[in-house]
Amino acid sequence: MANQYYAGGMTLGNLCYGLLLHLSMYILSWVLQNIIPTT
């Protein structure tokens, strides 16, 4: 049972990490586009 809880925690942690990574990438690209206009 402890192993299943640990595995579930790792999966949830990976999901949160992935979400934060995508969010930070999106914010970074948005900031760069606003600071350095491409048009």
Question: Top keywords for this entry?
Answer:
39 residues; mainly alpha
Description:
This protein has one helix and no strands. It is an all-alpha fold and 39 residues long. The protein has one domain (1-38). The chain has one helix at residues 2-35. It is 87% helix and 0% strand. The model has no long low-confidence stretch (mean pLDDT 81). Keywords: Membrane, Transmembrane, Transmembrane helix. The chain crosses the membrane at residues 12-32.
Number of domains: 1
Q: Give the averaged pLDDT, no decimals.
A: 81
Tell me the fraction of residues in β-strands, as a range.
under 5%
Q: Structural class of the helices, strands and pairings?
A: mainly alpha
The largest pleated sheet is described as: none
List the helices and strands in order: H
Q: Which stretches of 5+ consecutive residues score pLDDT under 50? A: none
Tell me, briefly, the overall form: rod-shaped
How many helices?
Answer: 1
Transmembrane segments: 12-32
Keywords: Membrane, Transmembrane, Transmembrane helix
